[in-house]
């Protein structure tokens, strides 16, 4: 049988698709678009940044606020626009800061946190919002 480059690429593409589809179906089956195994779970003791105007973001915060292991502070950025982001600029944040926000809010928050010496560790798109971690 004559194997061409095209056949090899098609086989590799098929194998990659077969590996990705089960992970995507698990994430789609879980509420809020998150994987059921808690892949978007914030590290214990981290500060959570969320947007109460976005249902997905509020649901994500409530999911982990109720668990004793995830007792951490949280910052709602819905009110931060009105007070010129004073909570993020004035608070001494320790440890990880994790968020589920829109892209425009992520850019602003990332700028404020980089001024405090934190660096972006993870960034993933979750439907219309972005999950991110800074430490």
Structure characterization notes:
This protein has 135 residues and is of the alpha/beta class. The chain folds into two domains: 1-30; 40-134. It is 40% helix and 19% strand. It has four helices and five strands; from the N terminus they run αβαβαβαββ. It has a five-stranded mixed β-sheet with strand order 2-1-3-5-4, sandwiched between helices. α2 links the parallel β1 (47-50) and β2.
Sheet with the most strands? Answer: 5 strands, mixed
- The general outline is elongated
Number of helical stretches of at least 4 residues: 4
Strand order of the largest sheet: 2-1-3-5-4
Structural class: alpha/beta
Q: SSE string, helix = H, strand = E?
A: HEHEHEHEE
Q: Could you tell me the strand content as a percent range? A: 15-25%
Over all CA atoms, what is the radius of gyration? 19 Å
């Amino acid at each position: 049988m004559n194997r061409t480059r095209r056949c090899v690429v098609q086989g590799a593409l098929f194998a990659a698709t077969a590996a990705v589809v089960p992970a995507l179906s698990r994430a789609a089956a879980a509420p809020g678009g998150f994987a059921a195994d808690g892949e978007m779970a914030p590290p214990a003791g981290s500060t959570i940044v969320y947007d109460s105007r976005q249902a997905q973001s509020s649901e994500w915060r409530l999911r982990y606020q109720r668990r004793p292991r995830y007792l951490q502070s949280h910052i709602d950025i819905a009110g931060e626009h009105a007070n010129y982001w004073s909570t993020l600029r004035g608070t001494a944040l320790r440890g990880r800061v994790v968020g589920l926000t829109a892209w425009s809010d992520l850019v602003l928050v990332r700028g404020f946190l980089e001024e405090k010496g934190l660096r972006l560790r993870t960034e993933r798109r979750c439907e219309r919002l972005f999950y991110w971690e800074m430490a």
